[in-house]
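Blinded run. Sample ID left blank on purpose so nobody reads anything into the name before looking at the predicted structure. Input follows.
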Amino acid sequence: REEHERFFAELLGDVTEPTAPYGLMDVSGDGAGTSAGMPIPQDVADRLRDVSRRLGVSPATVLHVAWARVLAVLSGRDDVVFGTTLFGRMNAGAGADRVVGPFINTLPVRMPTGDVGVRAAVEQMRSQLAALLEHEHAPLAVAQQASGITENTPLFTSLFNYRHAGHGNSRPDTSSEGMRGVYSSERTNYPLAVSVNDLGGHGLSWTILAVDPIDPYAVGQLLCTTLENLVGALTDRPDTPVSALRVLDARQRDQVLSGWNDTATEVADATAAELFARQVAETPDAVAVVADDAQLSFVELDAAANRLAGYLVSQGIGAESVVGLCLPRSAAMVTAILAVWKAGAAYLPIDPELPADRIAFMLADCRVAVLLGTEDVLDELPAGRVRMVAVDDRMVAAMVAAQPGTDPAVSVGPAGLAYVIYTSGSTGTPKGVAVTHGGLTNYLLWAAEAYRMAPGGGGAPLHSSLAFDLTVTSVLVPLVTGSPVVVHEAGDADGLAALLGERGGFGLAKVVPAHLPLLAESLSGEAAAGAARTWVVGGEALPGPVVRAWLERAPGSVVVNEYGPTETVVGCCVYEVSAGQEVGDTVPIGRPIANTRLYVLDEALQPVPPGVAGELYIAGAGVARGYVGRPGLTSQRFVASPYAPGERMYRSGDLAKWSADGQLVYEGRADQQVKIRGFRIEPGEIQAVLDDHPDVIQTAVIVREDTPGDKRLVAYVVADDDVADVRQFAAQRLPDYMVPSAVVRLDRLPLTVNGKLDRRALPAPDYAPQAGTGRAPANANETALCEVFAEVLGLDRVSADDDFFASGGHSLLAIRVVSRVRAVLGAELSLRELFDTPTPAALATKLGRPTSNRPALRPMRKEQS
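Blinded prediction complete.
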């Protein structure tokens, strides 16, 4: 037994989870499945036997390597473990050949399939199979215990069985490795079982038995193609990496690379500002912007943008300059976007609620030439070396008004920089995505047609931050189609619901998935049905039940699942759902938009077959330049395409698969990146911030979904002292959506046997440990805020000193608190203030000091729900 343990510990000691086809990690075979059998083409079988003889190995050895390659594709791994069936009589002792009954045993095979050449892989497999024979009577439990996989998880989920038909009771052939399969039932204890039937002179065939959703016939096809390419490589190109072996035949390969990417479309050679100018000429008097501060026609908006552009040009702004925009949602914000482009520059959106350090970093990193804002906002921002211009300053306003209302006629081509948006970075600092005019124009013209926007239509509501590229759709698609942008100053779900209830009939509304159930709560059936014709939903995976529930309330509308990283201009792939249409638990992301190509590839950049997950690569018109000032990171994420010379692909880090009918299905992340409220978050950036806390020794940040549909960031910290202030520490340095909902203190982080974080061993946080058991509110303001907290959190009672986030709150619920404080208490509260002072007592003190812009608190009145 000790020899067995040493052997398997060396083979499997660093294996911490089973190799499983995507989606089958938690599936165990129960003996029932779909079976498919097929012959191996005779010419392939003959070449297999020939090459095996020349290499001095058995055909079984080569077939094991072929299966390792297929399993690598099915699982997305380059190091795979699967079971192999051993005959069991080789080392059974004297007289074993006269004993009645089977000696069958199943043991693990491990095969790296990355850069190793095919001939070297065959040699490695021959040696491993020969070594297994020395341990063929070892219990499988010994191998399991020697690995880093827990007892309740199977060591492997697929079985490979090579058997000689008609010779099950004969002595094994030991001329090569002595490997021999035996007859067995077509029922299996594994989700995926492959049996190769060696019929001697009558050829080879195999039988595949698989549980749903794996198609056994498709697996057989993969094996056939892989084996043929493996035999060819062993004959002519023995140094070919195993990972480079193609698993798709020519027809399948053409389908996934070209057929489903046939999206070529002519696009106007114009920037977004030029498209807007054309619309001004066509519909000069149509309403372009409706906002609290102004209502502008297209010609009025054009003139205002031209004057501001003239002012920027006079200040030295031109091509490739970056202008920061830190403006509230308003007509002035829309004007500024167009003005920056008319001046030939690009804009950088700045959310004033971001921590000061983060804003300062973005301004310096992007080398912002001028920062446009309003006086009250700019007064709160870090000055640094950036020139700040308040557009509502009387002197500035006079200088802008003195400019001509004609276009400065600055020429910018499709390759020119349009805007920069910062996203979370895994190294601890955000990264700026540089988007070009050509990519933006391609998206806008496609969206205008796909979303059926037309002059004089309902337009779109603007409710999101300019720093979130969801806003690009809400602002620019209406403006290039002659439709109005209706600006809502308060950018929360309840504010959007109020706008939709007051003014329906929008052509499109762009939201994140979490908005739909909140809007369903807030809007009457009539208001929901008439709110918007097209609901464009993006930012994160779209649950099917959410769509079905919404379309029951608004059956005349359509919901479009729009997928696209910031690095590929808002959206690059869409799937439309109408009332009555069947949709699963997760809505597909669909097909690529115009002039876009989407590839689902493995680690070797080879296409994977339909039904199999791989990493999604995006090519075409929308691919951004890269990351500002980050050439190394740019080269990692924007890679050369092997399918179009001179073209780049963006490596998304998302996993996806093609369905049989050519629709893409999102399957999660290939790394640890997550999405919260539609914002892309790198846990590494949060960890880097928490590591700076003086009492924190070690951190881990993950997303938990302890309640279905409720994703929350949770930080686990090892610290010398109490960590009660860790959330506030993070809130002062990170955007609100990146602040963990809970911080759990541990004596040490749980690790796997090979030293990696054991995520499954991290405890669930107690989101509401003692809510409502502390001090009662001391005055009317505290009472009102306690009631708001309890209402939003769904609790019976909240005490005056209860922390909103420690009691179960998170960033999305925080938006509702802000909205309820405004609606019920008559006070303006920012998300930043709530994160800084998250208790009713502290908020009552802060909000109880009225300013010129904030009304005093008044006692809460009961409202009709």
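Unblinding after everyone has recorded impressions. The CA atoms of residues 281 and 516 lie 37 Å apart.
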